[in-house]
Each structure stands twice: as structure tokens, then as C-alpha cells.
């Protein structure tokens, strides 16, 4: 009996039979992604539009209740950009982002190299432990490190007392420089597993034959790292710079849990400024404007990264 061969494309997909007509690939893709698009519009698009409306309006509590938001133009943006505290906070946020992202990449690379060692026991132990910080929620991470740095019952002071390095408790979160350093450390501890896992995946993709050839040529392990490993990891570093800089500049949870912006305004970040302006000063319009200024700064940095870093690596 002869069996006629049919192309798989001759059978219409169930969705095409259900709607009663054939769909091309573009229409089918749109139909399948439509539920996700609707959810994103509802969860992200509308709040974003409403925040944008607040930033160009004169918003008060009474106005929010009655939806009476008179148009104010760029008045709120001018007020935010002319506030010395916001400018100082924005510069501090940029410094925080530069330091934290650099530390995250350095620590992540070190851990990834440790995970990539031929010692199976050490590699498995490192892989299991590196996931733990990534599993801790941001606000819980801030609370945990606030206990560590607590001057009365903190584990850090207890450890230093045991070693005989200090004779009185140190108030880490009460000094401007040490408070910001503690926030940076807590943030880096939480996010470095992301870079470590990316670096580890990239290291697994480097052929061992390259290192074997380098060993034959007499290259040391340090030379192999700088001449082979590091250049091949530059595309991953470029991706990390683009992604993690955007997240670092919106740091909020650790600041909220550890210092609440103190002492004074020494640990204020741009996100904390928006929060404080909105919910403490009840200036909803200026809070929304400051958030959009931060968003524009992040967008500009992302464009620069993609233009001068990521594209060059590609």
C-alpha cells in the first residue's frame, strides 16, 4: 500500500483550526504573546504612565483622591534638579554603582575561577555555597547585615573582640564612610553570585587545548589568565556592566533595612530620595520626577555601555 508523504506544514496548527483560518508566523507569534503583552501593560505600562503623569502635574493628597492633577509642565523637574540634596544624592549613587559593580565583577570572577578548578570537592562546595546569597531576599539581606554590624550584639565586633583587635565596640552604621561601606558590602554579597555563575559558564566554554598549548609554550598560570582567560571573558564583563549598573543605581532595600539613609543623609541614594520625597514629604509630583530623572540617567548609561563597550566586544 502506498503511503502519501505529507509535509508537516500541510497540517494546520490547532489554533488555526480553532479560529477557522490560516495564520502566518507573525500573526501566530503575536497571538501567542498577546496574554503576556496584556499583563505587562497592566503591571508595568499603566503604573509607568501614571507616574509620568504625576511628574508633570501638581499632585496633592486631595488631588490624588479626586484625580484632580493640574498640569505643571517641567516645574517638578526644575525643582528636583535645582535641589542640592538631589544632585549630591545622584552623584553618591553613581559612585555607589561604580564601586559595587566593580567589586561584584572582581569577587564573581574569583569565585568562578575557584568553581572551575579540577578539585571536584572544592568545586562542588563552592557551587553549593555561592547560591545561598542569591536566594536571600534583598530586604532580608539588609536586616541580616544590620545585625552583623550592630555595635552591641553584632557578630563582627564579637569576632574582632575575640581576636583582640578592638577594645570597645565599633559603630559601623553610625559613621558616614563606614555606613556606606557596609551598605556596599551587603549589596555586593547579595548580587555577586549572578556574575559568578555567568563567569563560570563562560569558563566552561573555553577549550582546554588553548591552555595546553600555552603550557607547552612555557606560559605560567598568571600569564594564561591575563592573556587567555581574561580576554575571552570580556564579552561577559560587558553584559554584566550593562545589566548590573542599572540595578545598582536603583539600590533601595539595603539602605532601608540598614541605615534608612543615615547617619544624616550620608547613605541617601537616588531611589531613597524618591521614596523620602514621596512618602515623607508627601510631594508625590517631585518624587515621581526624581524617579524619572534617575531612569533617564540609567537609560543614558545603558546606551553608552551598548555603544562603546558591548558593541566593541562583539
Order of helices and strands: HHHHHHHHHHHHHH
Q: How many strands, which pairing sense, and closed or not: the largest β-sheet?
A: none
Structural Rg: 26 Å
Unreliable parts: 1-13
Continuous helix count: 14
Structural class: mainly alpha
Q: Percent helix among the residues? A: over 70%
Number of strand segments: 0
Distance between the termini: 56 Å
Which overall shape is indicated by the principal axes computed on the Cα atoms? globular
Class of the largest domain in CATH?
A: Mainly Alpha
> So what's the oligomer here?
single chain
- CATH homologous superfamily of the largest domain? MetI-like
The name CATH uses for the topology of the largest domain is MetI-like fold
Protein model, in words:
The protein has 314 residues and is mainly alpha-helical. It has two domains: 45 residues, no CATH class; 239 residues, MetI-like fold. It is 73% helix and 0% strand. The protein has 14 helices and no strands. Helix 2 packs across helix 14, helix 4 crosses helix 14 and helix 5 packs antiparallel against helix 11. 27% of the residues are buried. The N terminus is likely disordered.
Pick out its properties.
disordered N terminus; single chain; MetI-like fold; globular; mainly alpha; 314 residues
SSE layout:
Layout: H1 14-19, H2 25-55, H3 61-66, H4 75-81, H5 84-115, H6 120-135, H7 138-148, H8 155-163, H9 176-204, H10 208-216, H11 221-248, H12 253-258, H13 270-279, H14 284-313
